[in-house]
Amino acid sequence: MTDLPARPANRLRKPSWHDSRLVVGVILVLLSVAAGGVLVAQADHRVPVLVAQADLVPGDRLTADNTRVVPVQLGDGLVRYLAGTTRLGDRYVLRPVRRGELIAASGVGVAADLAVQPLTVMADATSATALVRGSVVDVYVNIPKGGSSEGYAGSERVLTTIAVADRPAPSSGLGTSSDRLPVRILVPRERVNDLVNHLDDGSRITLVPIPGSLTAGPGS
Q1: pLDDT of 7-51, one tens digit each?
Q2: Torsions phi, psi of 176, nearest 5?
Q3: Least packed by Cβ within 10 Å: which of 9, 48, 50, 134?
Q4: What are the b/e assignments for 105-125, b being 16+ CB within 10 Å?
Q5: 131 in Cβ contact with 207 (< 8 Å)
């Protein structure tokens, strides 16, 4: 029986750059990576805006200490907020801003735009102990009837949505007593004189937080 000629064994050859299939494959991979990067870049429309680093009240000057820059995706809503590239300069908060909130452009202005003045009042301690910087309150006054022995006429709300700038600790020595605490509030300029008159007349002041307002937590 005649033996058939032996066929040489097929061996795998190491691919080389001369192999067109390898070149095409590498090109396809590179194109896929590049296309993915472009899509990701186009999908990220975040822009830097200013965020409050602390609770801010009207009259606070914006600084690098009480603000920070964060990237956010706002779309057309961007124009309503201060850009992260804004030069702070002499810019002041015109209305309360909570820590972590974006700072609205309409809520910031120069010193001449401020419509409030700080005024320290001796307020009823029962409600004042729950207040913190940034609390928003309604102001009630209880006017004396006449002499100190005749009592008071009854409470009346005279101001609404007033921001608390500060509440000194009872140990601050600012004339504190067992039933009253000094609280610095931000009063509309046109109402400062009225409230000062109430203070001079010996009216009792009570500050009542509005629903949802910042207040001291348990044990504060």
Answers
A1: 555 555 555 555 566 566 667 777 777 666 555 555 557 788 999
A2: -70, 150
A3: 9
A4: bebbbeeeeeebeebbbbbbb
A5: yes
